[in-house]
Amino acid sequence: MAELLARITVKSYGVKVGVHRAGLKAEHRREVEEAFKEGVLRAVVATPTLELGIDIGDLDAVVLTNLPKSYSSYLQRAGRAGRRGRQGLIYAILGDDAIEAYYTLRPREYFEQEVPPSYIEPYNLEIAKTHIAAMLMERGALRVNTIPRELHRALEELEELGVVEISSNIIRGVRGKLKVFLESRGGIRSTGHQVRIFEGSEEIGFRELPEALLDLYPGAVYYHAGRPYISMNLDLERRRAEVRSVREVSYYTRPLYTVEVEEFKPLDSTVFNNVKLLYGHVRVTLKVEGYTVREEASGALIAEIPLEKPLKWSYWTMGFMGRYPDAGFHDITRAISSYHALEHVLIAASRPVAGVADTDLGGVSYPSGHIVIYDASPGGNGASRLVLERFGRVVDIAEVIVSSCSCEDGCPRCVYSPYCGSNNRFLSRRGALRLIDLMKMEKAEPPEPGRPQGPSIA
Fold first, then answer.
1. CA of 440: how far to CAs of 38, 271, 272, 403, 437, in Å?
2. Which CATH architecture has domain 125-185?
3. Which of 224, 387, 408, 434 has the most other CB atoms within 10 Å of its CB?
4. Mean pLDDT along residues 351-373
C-alpha cells in the first residue's frame, strides 16, 4: 500500500515522491533518505522503517494514512515533525475501518491513552533454531537438557531438516549442513524465510514469508521502488520469485486464500467467562487459490481469477484457540458468517488494546465455533499472547464496534477486513454481536475446546 500510495501521489500531483520500506535493497533506502534530506524528494511514503533510529532531518508535516498499530508508534511518527523549536503539522486520516470508526467517535480516548507495554515471545521457534545452530557452530556440541523444554520443537525441526544429529542427550551439527542452514537464515538477526525477487538475472529485492506467498503469486501486481511489476512465477522451494516490469498498470491485486490449522500443541490456558482459551504452538498452512483484481484509485472489484496451480506454505507459530458459544444457528452459512465476523472484530479490537497491527495477527474460524488467532510471523511474535492477556478488554471494544455500527449486517466500519482471504464473504455483524452477548454470560466450567470441525474460513 505504501508503493500504491506513492504511485497515486505522483500521478495526481506530479511531485517527486520516494518509497521507503522493507524488501528494498539497503542502498536504495539510503539513497531515498539522502534525497529527502537534500530536498530532492518532496515527500517519502514509508512503512515503519522510518519510525525509529534514522535521522531524516527537519520535517514540516507527517501524514498518517491510518492509525498506527499502537499509540507509542503514533507518538514516534508524530515526533518526526516540528523539531528544534519549529512547528509541525500532524495529519491522521481515518477511513472505513473498525478501529478508526471507533476513535472517530472517541478522539479524547485515543489521545489520553497510556503507551501500551511491549512483549517479546520467548518461545519463538524460528529464532530458537537460528540461535541453536549458531551455538553449535561456536561450541561444537550441546546437551539436550540445556535447551528449555518449550524449545525442543525447534530441535526436532532442525533434526528433521538434517541440520543436527541427536544421540545420548548430545546435539551435534551435521558437517556442511549447519553452515548452509545459517547462511540461508541471513544472519543471527534475520527472521529467515526470505524469497528473493528477480527481474531476469538481476536481483531487485526480497520479501519474507508468509507475506511473499500473499504478494508474489503468479499474476500479482507487485510495486517495487515506485515501479509496477507482474509476478510471473513463485518457486517456494527455491525461495525465488520472477517478475516482469510493466510501463503502466491501472489496477492492483489481492490474494484469495484459505488457512488450515494442521496441529495445535497447548502450553497454557485461561478462561473468559464461558470460553476456555488454549495458548500454544500452532502449525498453519496458507493456500493461495486465486486473486482479485481491483481498480487502482477506487478499489472497485474488476475480476476474480483462479490460479492454475494453487500455492501453499506451512509454518509453526504461536496462537490461541477457543470454542465460542453455540448460538443455535440452524443454518451453517449463518454459523460460519457469525464466527468469521467475530474473528475479524476480535483481531481489529486487539490493535488499541495490545498495540498490534492487523498484519501482526492471522485468524481462522470454523462452523463448529472454533476460532484460532495466531501470530502471523513464523515462530511467533508475541502478539497473540498480548491479546490473550487482555482478552476481556478486547471483547469490550469488539462489542462497541459491532453494536454501534448502523449497517444492515456487516461493512468495513465493523467486521470487514482488507486482509480477509475470502474477500469478506460470509460475515454477519448481528451474529457476532449475539456471540459476544453469550460470551459475557457467566458459566462455572467452560467445556474443553476439542478439535475444530468443518470447512475453515480465513
1. 57, 12, 8, 14, 5
2. Orthogonal Bundle (1.10)
3. 387
4. 89
Q: How far apart are CA 325 and CA 295, in angstroms?
A: 39
Cβ pair 344, 396 in contact under 8 A: no
Look up cell 498498470; give the residue. Answer: 249
Q: Which residues pair with 280 in a beta bridge?
A: 266, 319
**What is the distance between the alpha carbons of residues 2 and 454, in angstroms, rounded to a whole number?**
37
pTM exceeds 0.70 for this model: yes
| Alpha carbon of residue 73 to chain centroid | 16
pLDDT at 387 over 60: yes
Cβ-based neighbour number of residue 443 at 10 Å? 13
Which single residue is written with the C-alpha cell 540461535? 131
- Contact 165/174 with Cβ under 8 angstroms? yes
User: What residue ranges of the chain are covered by domains with CATH 3.40.50.300?
Assistant: 2-111
Enter the C-alpha cell of residue 91. 495529519
CATH number of 2-111: 3.40.50.300
Q: Which cell goes with 140?
A: 561444537
- The residue type found at 216 is L
Q: What is the CATH number of domain 260-283+316-439?
A: 3.30.1360
Task: Give the span between the Cα atoms of 342 and 345, in whole angstroms.
Answer: 5
CA–CA dist 93, 96 (Å, integer): 10
